[in-house]
Amino acid sequence: MNTDASRDAPDDRLPAGTRIGRAALRIVDLDETTAFYRDVVGLGVLDRDGDRAVLGVDGTPLLVLERDPDRPDRGRTDAGLFHTAFRVPSRAALGEALVRVRDRWRLDGPSDHLVSEALYLDDPEGNGVEIYRDRPREEWPVADDGTVRMATEPLDVQGVAAAAGGASAGLVDDAPSGTDVGHVHLEVTSLSAFEAVYVDGIGFEVGMTGPNVRFVAAGGYHHHLGANTWRGRTTPAAGRGIAWFEVVVPDAAAVEAVRDRLDAVAADTDVDVGVEVREDGIAITDDDGIEVHVRPEFA
């Protein structure tokens, strides 16, 4: 599912075809957490051993779970994950997810964001999860400055349930074809450092901003990444939780452009950013110790 615009991007911005790829979590209980993402979110188990599980849809990996019992719990002041957001392709699919959550888990704060409708919950180890569907792009409200406007309003839960057949709908175990990771939302220690890495360096465009929050995206999407300082995190990510996530760009030239921009950020600012060259792209460690893999499509 690709809802990104096809327009060209400026040389210092990511191409419009940019998307989020896989996300990875460090956890303790691999059995329980795998069961949650399989039975509640609806992902299929694509690969599994004693310390690692890969889950996805239609053979496409979306989530990697890495068992790491020796790593400490995430501290109250640690930066890290706010939520991983799984995007489903229709309101009916969101309704099916709602039925699974109501039957098998706990729903927390269903919301209408004007551009999307969303369900929120936590996995068994406290990692935030969003399941959402986008409204058609032509329906997204636009602010005076040209950015996509979002809000948080109560979700029409009955309408979402009705889209899947309402009370008569049976359980649908699997998320449908077209499900992907639409965005990742982080808790950071500094929004200015976040912008230095993800906007000036990686090349996302700033979208809607609010009190202590930034949304950034490529290709006119409402947001591929969110970052907030709502809980006053003050120390880098160190414990369990997010291990890494992917930013997937159209080609190797886009990866090289990211690397050049990050070199400039490292040279011109005091933001601590590490870049490692990998066979399939580059791995970036941001100022909060969060690892981001930038790779070309089909790498």
UniProtKB/TrEMBL annotation:
One example GO MF annotation: dioxygenase activity
InterPro entries according to UniProt: Glyas_Bleomycin-R_OHBP_Dase, Glyas_Fos-R_dOase_dom, VOC_core
Keywords: Dioxygenase, Oxidoreductase
Oxidoreductase keyword on record: yes
Any Pfam family: Glyoxalase
Cell inner membrane among keywords: no
Highest taxon of the lineage: Archaea
SUPFAM superfamilies recorded: Glyoxalase/Bleomycin resistance protein/Dihydroxybiphenyl dioxygenase (SSF54593)
VOC domain: residues covered: 19-134
Protein name: Glyoxalase/bleomycin resistance protein/dioxygenase
Phylogenetic placement of the source organism: Archaea, Methanobacteriati, Methanobacteriota, Stenosarchaea group, Halobacteria
